[in-house]
Amino acid sequence: MPVNEYPGDYSWGYKVRDFFAVESSYGATADLKQLIDECHGRGIRVILDGIYNHCDEECPLLLIDRNYWYYRDKHYPQDPANYWGPEFNYENFDPKLGICPAWKFIGDVVNFWIQEYHIDGIR
């Protein structure tokens, strides 16, 4: 299950609000770090569930500039049964920066979790 912050206190966690935050109803940041350290101390690898195709409507990145980071209305409203939130636009290329912003952002997210929490992988 994902551990990222999501809206409310009860969810499967697949509608990410903050890609860099631990879900507050699960406990403190320090608690997750301690759990991962304890797992490693017992030879257990920690792999987190990563949700990198969509987000919650109140995700800060979405509020900053929806059209830069996300597809406009993909799967919605034509297919409301499959709408899980705005979807990252992995096709967008920013010629000024020479990057695909969504790819860069998600790479930064994964590196953050590896460096800050010492996770062993993302599923």
How many strands, which pairing sense, and closed or not: the largest β-sheet? Answer: 2 strands, antiparallel
Oligomer: single chain
Measured between the Cα atoms of the first and last residue, the distance is 10 Å
Helix content: 25-40%
Strand proportion, as a percent range, falls in 5-15%
Uncertain stretches of 5 or more adjacent residues: none
The helix/strand order is EEHEHHE
Total helices: the number is: 3
Shape: globular
What strand line-up does the widest sheet have? 1-2
DSSP summary, beta strand count: 4
What structural category do the secondary elements indicate? alpha+beta
Give the C-alpha Rg.
16 Å
- Average residue pLDDT: 91
Describe this structure in words.
The protein is built from three helices and four strands. It is an alpha+beta fold. It has a two-stranded antiparallel sheet. The chain is globular, with a radius of gyration of 16 Å.
